[in-house]
Design a protein that fits this description.
This protein has 608 residues and is an alpha+beta fold. It contains 17 helices and 27 strands. It has 3 domains: 170 residues, OB fold (Dihydrolipoamide Acetyltransferase, E2P); 188 residues, Vaccinia Virus protein VP39 (Rossmann fold), CATH 3.40.50; 139 residues, no CATH class.
Length: 608
């Protein structure tokens, strides 16, 4: 990642300082090369010799005597590091290749002269850096990435016969825009959206509800109809399998991808938020309160009517997040008031936890008295009382009371489709409880095995990566026995308690790595279904081989990263001994996070 285009800033800094800034802050450049499965980045040294001649002949940059003494000028080199091919930066490489192919371009035709930028010592507008980092107008957005950013092709500012791939946050296919390029990578550049000259047919800016949208990095799709968002997410699932399961695509082994399942709530659904603030290293004590909120997505200017909202720092000062639940936003308001009074006590940056806590209560319960015993966010403007909201679950006829917890070690409760789940507030749990009943029902229905010869037969379930027992407990009806496995002993402890609290007696939870799970499974594989719900990185090859050896009757793979899911499904079907015995029954996305680019994938495999 390279410095923003500011000749005033660059002229004020010696080159050694610029280099230090580059090494400290280049998150994206550190992640801009890929492992062997990803299209490789080309080495960028094509201007080194020309640059050496230019620098040595410029007396303002290097004394001539250094050449006479025979000292060899040491050029700074771009050092790319590997990234996971299924991470956003890994996926971007596939998206770049697809865009180049559609425009009849090659990687060589869009390669950027990184060496010249790194070693640029010219301090005026004629510098290479200034030429690369510039304003470009009349740019047509051609596609959108899985990360929700627009992609386009622009002219290379230095080499007439070359182009550049540019990333445009908040750009939509069909938009004609004005942008400012501010970072350069080997095969693409990053930009800020300055102006939408002509709107895409799918852009509906009147739908935007948040004053921070267009600056905040949290949401990408508020200017799309919800139906359009669901289409975008279906495309993300399709592209994931195109990039990471090419053999399955070529052999037409992937079923028609189902429509993305909508979230019952499109706003006010998120049950966890983590606002944060930074303290600059040179600041020993605050003179004014730092912004508390979420990261800014570059320095966009396209929403002129809200350009001042949240400030201009790298972290925006966010007063309200409209995708958060009501009690979460009340907690945010409370903690911001507290921060107003206590920010001078902080010596370094911090992240605040805001986690919804739901209790099922009796209709005759004195809510105020129960709340007094809780540890939760308090309102300093209301006698420092704990804030809470009362609701009623109409379907199950249960009164609920919600508070906002800020202590990561505190035990909280989530209420899902009539079940309650306890876990530590800082631990992982799905953050959109409005869609969880829909997802758990879908999983439950797809796990059921048919009767044998018209007669009822035992059914079993193995839940890998079971966490605190969400899918195990919600899927326990209709099966004789559930075995859940989780590497975290604390999570297993919560899973056991959750089964007891919900009166579920056919669940057994064990501590262990999923990779060694099947060594101790004692239920017959022909009557067993398996749930996979791994972390973003997906499953490793050892686990998938053991899964194939166990040879269960059905597999339901749930993933928050459809790219690692696609990679794993292809490996399982094509590279394991028993993979050929399975077929993909269904594949579709679930919209856990409306207004954002995220999509959850659910794939069902059946042994045939």
């Amino acid at each position: 990642m390279f410095l923003r285009n500011s000749s005033r800033l660059i002229s004020a800094l010696p080159s050694s300082t610029i280099l230090r800034h580059y090494h400290k802050n280049s998150f994206i450049s550190k992640m801009s090369s890929l492992n062997a499965t990803v299209p490789s980045a080309m080495p960028i040294d094509n201007a080194a010799n020309e640059y050496r001649k230019r620098v040595l002949s410029d007396s303002s940059n290097e004394p001539v005597q250094s050449q006479k003494k025979g000292k060899k000028l040491k050029l700074k080199k771009y050092k790319a590091k590997k990234v996971d091919s299924t991470s956003p930066l890994g996926v971007l490489q596939f998206e770049i290749d697809e865009l180049l192919n559609s425009e009849n371009l090659t990687r060589k035709s869009v390669v950027n002269d990184i060496s010249s930028i790194l070693n640029d010592k010219v301090k005026d507008e004629s510098s290479v850096t200034s030429k690369y980092h510039r304003v470009v107008t009349d740019v047509k957005v051609l596609s959108v990435s899985a990360n929700g950013d627009g992609l386009a092709i622009i002219d290379n500012p230095v080499e007439d016969n070359k182009k550049q791939v540019v990333i445009i946050p908040f750009g939509l296919p069909g938009d004609i825009v004005e942008i400012r390029v501010f970072k350069t990578h080997p095969h693409y550049v990053e930009s800020d959206l300055l102006k939408v000259i002509k709107k895409s047919d799918i852009r509906k800016d009147d739908l935007i509800k948040c004053k921070y949208f267009g600056k905040c990095s949290g949401c990408q799709y508020q200017f799309l109809t919800y139906d359009e968002q669901l289409i975008m997410k279906r495309n993300t699932v399709a592209n994931a399998y195109k990039y990471f399961a090419p053999k399955l695509c070529k052999e037409e082994l992937i079923p028609k991808i189902g429509d993305t399942i909508a979230s019952p709530l499109q706003y006010g659904y998120r049950t966890k938020l983590t606002p944060h603030f930074d303290v600059p290293r040179k600041v020993k004590e605050f003179e004014e309160k730092p912004p508390l909120g979420f990261g800014q997505k570059g320095r966009p200017h396209w929403r002129t009517e809200t350009i001042s909202e949240g400030g201009s720092a790298s972290i925006l000062d966010i007063e309200e997040c409209i995708i958060g639940t009501d009690i979460i936003n009340k907690g945010m308001s409370n903690e911001r008031k507290k921060f107003d009074e206590e920010f001078t006590k902080y010596k370094k940056g911090a992240t605040f936890l805001l986690r919804e806590h739901t209790r099922v209560i009796d209709s005759n319960t004195n809510v105020g008295k129960i709340i007094e015993e809780e540890e939760a966010s308090k309102d300093s403007s209301n006698d420092n009382k704990i804030s809470y909201i009362e609701l009623n679950d109409e379907q199950n006829n249960k009164p609920l009371v919600k508070t906002c917890v800020t202590n990561s070690r505190q035990i909280v409760t989530e209420y899902v489709d009539g079940y309650t789940f306890q876990f530590s507030a800082g631990e992982f749990f799905q953050n959109n409880n409005s869609i969880l009943p829909v997802v758990t029902q879908y999983v439950r229905e797809n796990l059921i095995l048919p009767d044998v010869n018209g007669e009822s037969a035992p059914r079993y379930l193995v839940d890998c990566y079971c966490g605190s027992g969400l899918f195990s407990i919600c899927s326990s009806k209709g099966v004789d026995k559930v075995i859940g496995v989780e590497i975290s002993a604390d999570s297993v402890s919560f899973a056991i308690k959750n089964a007891e609290n919900n009166g579920v007696k056919n669940c057994n939870f064990i501590v262990g790595k999923a990779e060694k799970l099947f060594e101790s499974i004692d239920v017959p594989n022909d009557r067993t279904s398996v749930i996979l719900d791994p972390p973003r990185k997906g499953c490793d090859e050892l686990f998938l081989k053991q899964l194939a050896e166990y040879n269960p009757a059905k597999i339901v793979y749930i993933s928050c990263n459809v790219h690692s899911q696609a990679r794993d499904v292809e490996y399982f079907l094509k590279e394991t001994e028993n993979g050929k015995l399975y077929k993909m029954d269904s594949l579709r996305g679930f919209d856990f996070f409306p207004q954002t680019h995220h999509v959850e994938g659910v794939c069902v495999l059946t042994r045939v």
